[in-house]
Amino acid sequence: MNPRTDDRHPLELLPEYVNGRLGAQDAAAVRAHLDGCEECRTELGAWRAVSGAAEPFSPASVSLPAGLADRVSEAVAREVAAADTARRPGGVVPRFRWLAGFVAAQAPLVRREIWPASTVVMFIGAAVSLIAGSDRGVPGAALSLLAPLAAALGVALIYGQENDPGLELALATPTSPRLVVVARLVVVLAWDLTLALAASAVLAVTNGPAVFVPVVSAWLGPMLLLGCLVLLLSLFVHSSLAIATAMVVWVVRAMAVSGETHIRSFSALADALNSVWQTSPATLALALALLVAAVLIAPYREPFGSRPSI
Amino acid sequence: MALVTTLVRRGMSHDERGEAELVLRLARGDAESVTELYSRFGRPLHAYVRSLVRDAGLAEEVVQDTFVAAWRGAARFEGRSSLASWLFGIARRQARDRMRRAVPETEPVDGLIDVAGGGLGPEAAALASASRAELAEALDRIPAADREVLLLAFAYELSGPEMAEVLAIPAGTVKSRLFNARRRLRAQLVEEELR
After folding, report:
1. What is the ipTM of this complex?
2. Which of B163, B168, B185, B187 is most exposed by smallest CB count within 10 Å?
């Protein structure tokens, strides 16, 4: 049976009547009703009894520990100080330390497949380069083809709701999405750069130290350019489109490098493409421009809106 | 100042306006305002937290966390609730975070229970005639969620809407919870008499 709520017996109002939180008008009505209603007076008595039983828990009965006020003030003061340091990092070292911690904290947030996937691809690139040796020109051709692609595929997956289930949480924090994007780019590219440098070092050991610089310059510029292009596309449209574009661009480039095409007009295009995919100041500047564009649009990406999935 | 103007326009009492200004100072990051907040609400909050967290030391930590969280979250206080219910709600969440399972989920109280004697009348009469010691013991033994709703009403004197906010349930549910908790208190009394 539910508490009766008919108009004649104001049963639902009695708890607030007892604890004094009923509005003056309602309280007057209840008082008038109680005068003539034995049943409701019994009800009132029951609530008063319950209220009496609650008395030992009331603020007046529970003794406030000595010094709690001070400890509360201290806890808030610590929080204020922490907020101040976060807002105005004093000096270069704490600021750098905070930034380094922030970048490192992104590593567990990006998709876990990125790490083994790029490692395997780099390993294949290094292995094929080692086996092929230097009999076909510059050593490390396979590495220079695979390293930029591995990095680009990883970069395509660093941001967006489809890649980061915790993004909603991250967006609720005062940290700018731009900083998040850059930090994740740094983490993923640092991993790929480390792997590719290690692979190049292995090639330098087997082929002689002189090949190190040419090998590195064969993949470094293309890796940065392709990575930044993919980042921009993944933020502007969608990760899947970014990946598809990276694949197409890179296959065309690979055909241009290998020269394995019988289309004559293609050779002019191949030359043009080869001039872009270098480690040159122009290529690096182009990569930087794409990165700046990506960082600028990062906050405007619709994190949860419908996006075409290809 | 927009918050205060809205609240004033809504026809707030002087006391409520004082609360709104206090929240505004909190939101601006004024740490001094925490002292004022504590002097107003420290005692009831501590008593409430002690009823949730029986360990005295842990309860103190929860109270500290509550004021820190209030200072941090003051910007999100929109003036739709009273300062008391906002703080009680924070304290409740902080206590839960600390205790995980020990603090009641407000789940199981909605099912009605049968009490010997049936209707409200005899139940009310029995409660009214029980001694305070018996009632206090019964209150200690009923499920924590039932005790909590009774304490929010009678020990901390929250209004119906305030209780609804603290417990994060609809206002109508608060009423049925109160009546159910009272029934359970009565059932506990019966059980102890039989023992």
Report:
1. 0.85
2. B168
Q: How far is A51 from chain B (nearest CA, A)?
A: 5
Are B2-99 and B108-194 the same fold in CATH?
no
The DSSP line for chain A is -PPP--SSS-GGGHHHHHHT-S-HHHHHHHHHHHHH-HHHHHHHHHHHHHHHHHGGGSTTTSPPPTTHHHHHHHHHHHHHHHHHHHHS--SHHHHHHHHHHHHHHHTTTS-TTHHHHHHHHHHHHHHHHHHHTTTTSSS-HHHHHHHHHHHHHHHTTSSSTTT-TTHHHHHHSSS-HHHHHHHHHHHHHHHHHHHHHHHHHHHHHHH-GGGHHHHHHHHHHHHHHHHHHHHHHHHHT-HHHHHHHHHHHHHHHHHHHHT----TTHHHHHHHHHHHSSSSHHHHHHHHHHHHHHHHHGGGS-SSS-----
**CB < 8 Å to B56, chain A:** 65
B110-140 residue pLDDT tens: 444 444 334 457 888 889 889 989 999 999 9
CB contact residues (below 8 A), chain A span 44-83, against chain B:
45-62, 64-65, 68-69, 71-73, 75-77, 79-80, 83
Class of domain B2-99: mainly alpha
**Quick check: A21 and B68 CB within 8 A?**
no
Domains of chain B, by residue range, sit at 2-99, 108-194
Q: pLDDT, tens digit, for every residue of A9-32?
A: 899 999 999 999 999 999 999 999
